[in-house]
Description:
Layout: E1 2-3, E2 6-7, H1 13-18, H2 41-59, H3 65-81, H4 90-100, E3 108-115, E4 120-128, E5 136-143, E6 154-157
Antiparallel strand pairs: 1-2, 3-4, 4-5, 5-6
Helix pairs in contact: 2-3
Amino acid sequence: MSYRGRDGIVIPEATARAEAVPEDLDAGAPRPYRFPDLGRRRWAAWIYLAMAVLLAGLAFSEPGLWITVLLMAGIAAYQRWASWHLVLDQASVLQTAAARVPFGVGHASVAVTFAGIRSRPLWQVIVYSPESPPKHRALVEIDGVTGECSEDVYIEDLEPPHT
């Protein structure tokens, strides 16, 4: 569905204002979308840690709360441990992916996936050649933390073989 010429989730303007939908969630906002930095997880870590400290003060009178204190402290540690900073934004990722394929790039799609127990961010980029219909497509994986491109770029010809 399109909203003011853009694809995405469509929320009527009156509903968005009534529900106080933040502008960064509005697909029709006239600005480029920027993927949020995963370092924001550090805020959650501080909140969990503060809750653990507050509950620790109460745990002396209620011994059963120590389990909750330890759980909150463990969640805080994990949130901090898994809070990576992205070194490339979406536009830079597209440029990096375009440089890795042996054909010109027309349409492209970018998504962030996560790998491993620490949820390391990986940019997944699908690029198509500029012809209509495209003759080639490729999948490029870029590490979100280092900005390094994977050596395994999958390239596929979309033209049917001539017999």
